[in-house]
Amino acid sequence: MKRNPLSAAVLCGLAASVAAYPAAAQQRVLEEVTVTATKREASLQDVPITVQALTGETLDELNVGNFDDYVRFLPNVNAGGRGPGQNEVYIRGMSIDAITVMLSGAQGSTPNVAMYLDEQPITAPGRNLDVYVADMERIEVLPGPQGTLYGISSQAGTIRMITNKPDVTEFDAGFKASMADTKSGDMSYTTEAFLNFPVIENTFAVRAVVYNASYGGYIDNVAGQYQLDPAVNTTLPADADYSQAVADNAVLVEDNFNDATYRGARISAKYWFNDEWSGQLTYMNQKLETDGVFDYDPAVGDLQVERYFEDSLEDEFDQIAWTLEGRMGALEVLYTGAYLDRNVEQSVDYTGYNNVGGFIAYYTCTYTNPDYIVNYGIDPNVITDVRTCLDPTKGFKGQQDITRNTHEFRLFSPQDKSVRVTAGVFYDDFELETQDDYFYLPPGNSEALGFAQNAPISTARNINPNVRPVGVGFFNDITRTEEQWAVFGEVTWDISEQWTAALGWRWYDMDLDFYGSSNFTNGIFQGSVDSDRGRDYDSTFGHSTEPLNIDGSVPKLTVTWRPTDNLMVYGTYSEGFRSGGWNRGGGAPSFNPSFPTVPVTYDTDDVINYELGWKATLAGGAVQWNGAVYYVEWEDMQTSRFDPINVSILTFIDNAADSEIRGIETDFVWAATDNLTLHGALAYIDTELTATQSTVIELAPVGSELALTPEFAGTLRARYDWFLDSMQVYAQGAVQYAGDSWSSIVAADRRKQDSYTTVDLSVGTWIDNWNVELYVRNLTDERADLFFNVQDDIPRITTNRPRTYGIRFSYDY
Q: Is Transcription regulation tagged as a keyword (predicted)?
C-alpha cells in the first residue's frame, strides 16, 4: 500500500494536540464508555478497533425508537430499503443495490454487514430485523471486516444491539410515553416500561421490558387508473387489434396509509451459582405491522402513490438466548447460544410489472385462436385476431419463515498477562423457507383465460404441497439452508510498554443448500388442476441434491502504538467474507436463448482492508477524538440483477465487478463547558468501480461510484444543560448531512439521489425523577432521497418522515 501523506499529517497533528493539553488544565472529564467489541469488556478508548458506540444515554437523548432513528446518526452506515424491516445495511461504502423484498428469500445474497442482537447474528437477505430500541444498553458499530471474531457477513462491518441485563444488586424501574404530530400526517404514540427486580439480592434477578409504538402514516394512496402500455411493453404491439380493461384503485384510496406499529416484550433472568459462575436466560417477542408503502412516486405527487393491490407487512420474531460464564482455573469461560424464529407475511402491489413483464399478454389477454400465443407473448406477425386484455391488477403475497440456531464457546486467558489469548468455536444452523405467490390473474381472469389452479411440481421438495389459490399465476416454494462451523482465535502480545501486536484467524466450513420449485400456470384451458410445469431445483439448471460446500479462512493483524496514556495509534490488515450460493435462474434463459448463460452458482466475494486509526483523549479528559483512514479492495462483488426481458423475469446473482474504496471517518465528544457538550461524526468515502467481468449484468462504467454512499456525510449535536432552582433544564440541537449518491451500480436501475440536510431540536426538564420534553424532528421539512428504487417497475423514492412535533414523558426510579 502506498504511503499516505494524510496519514502522516494525522499522526503529527495528534501528537501536537496531545502535547498541547496538560491534564491539570481542565477539570471536565467525559464518562468512560465500556464496549465489548473484542468480545470482552474494555474502555472504548483502550480497544484498537474503530467503534462507534451509541450508549443508552445517547439513545435516550436522541429519542431513538427504531432502525431509521439511529442509522441517521452513523455517517459511515447507509441503508437501502422500502420501509421498516425491509432494509439492507451497508458500511464504508460497500454497497451495490438493495434487492426487492419479493425476491429476497428466493434469491437474495447474504448481507455483507452482520447485525447482532446480543450474542446472536440476526442477519437475513433483504430484511433487517428491525428491533425496537427499548431498554437498550448500547448499539455498537464496528466498521471494516470483523471476520475473525464475528465471522460470516461481517465483511463490511458489524452492528451490535446490546440489551440491558438483569442487575442482582438493586431494584430499578421506569417508563416512557410520547405523542407526536407529523405535518399532513397522522399522530404517533409510543409507550414503554421496564422493571429490574432482585429476587434474591446479589444472587438472582429478573428484568423485563414491554413496549408499544405506533407511527402514523404520511404517504397518500391517491385515485388513479392503470392499463397496459404497448409503448413500454413490446410484447403488446401497438398496431395489434385488441381492447383493454382498466384497473381502478378507488377502494384502496386512503390518506396517510403507511402506518407502522411495533409491539414487543423481553424478559431475562440472571442467577449467580457462586462467586465465579453465572447463567442468564432471555426471551423476546416482537411483532412489527405496517400498512401501505414508505416510498412515494414523484410522478404522481409529493408523498403520493397510486396502488392497486393491498400493501401490508407482518414481521414477528421470537428469540430465546442463554449464556453461561465463569472461570476454570486461570481461564475465563463463556458459552452462549440462541434460537431465533422469525415469520414474515407481506402483500405488495405488483401492477407495475404489466409494462415490463415478457409474459404479460399470456397472463392478461384472451384469444380467439389459442395458437396466437407465441412463447407466452403475442405473435407480432398476426395482428388481425381480435382479443381482449382483462383487468391488469396484479399482486404479490409472500411468506418467509426464518430459523437460526447458534452456539458459541469462548476461552479467555488472563487479561493482566503480556500475552493474551481469545479462542472459540462457533456453530450456526440457518434455514429460510419462502413461499411467494404472484397473483397475475384478478378475480374472473382465471376463468376467462382458462387457467387451471397452479400446483407445485410433484417431484420437488416443497414446503407446501397444496394447490395454490385461484389467480396465482406463478409461485416460488423454496428452502435455503446454511450450516456453518468455525474455529477462531486472537493472540495479543505486549511487545513493550508502548507497542502491542494482535494476530487473529478464523477458519470456517459451511454447507449451502437450495431446493424446492418455481411453478407456472399451464397453457390455455388445461383442466381444473395444473400439471407439473416449472423448475425443480434438485434437477434443473445444474442444481443437485448435494449442498454447495465452501470453506476457507480469514486473518487479521493489528499493531498498536501508545506513545502516551492519552493517545493510541493502530494499524490493521483484515479480510472479510460472506457465503456464495445457488442461482434460482441458472442456465440458458428460456425467453431469449441468445442471452449469455446465467451461472448456476456464485462465489464468495473477497475484501481486503488496510486501516490506520487513532484514539485520543485531550484537554484533561474533556475531549475524545477518534478516527481512521482506510483503503479497501473488494473483488468478485456479488451483484444481483432483476431481468424482465432475457431471463424469464428472474433475479440472479453474478460475481460481476471489482472496486476500491478510500475513506476517512472520525468522531468526537467535547465537554466544552460545564454545561455544553458537543458530539460530531464525519465520513468521507471515495468509492470506485475498477473492473467489470459479468456477461449477464450490465453495470455502470468503470470509474463510477458505488451505490447508496455519499462522498461526504456527517452529524453534529450540541446539548446544553443548566439548573433553574431545583429543575435541571436542557436544550439540544442536531444536524445531519448526506451528500449526493447513486441508487445502484446496475446500469438499468441507477438513479441520482440528491443531498439533504435535516435538523432536530428539543428542550426539556428533569424534576426529581420525572422528565418532560418537547421536540421537533426534521425542522425544515426536508424531503430526503434515502433510496431511489425501481423495484415495482415504477420509479419511487423512500424518504424520511416530514416535520414532526412531539412531547414525551418519562420516569426513572
A: no
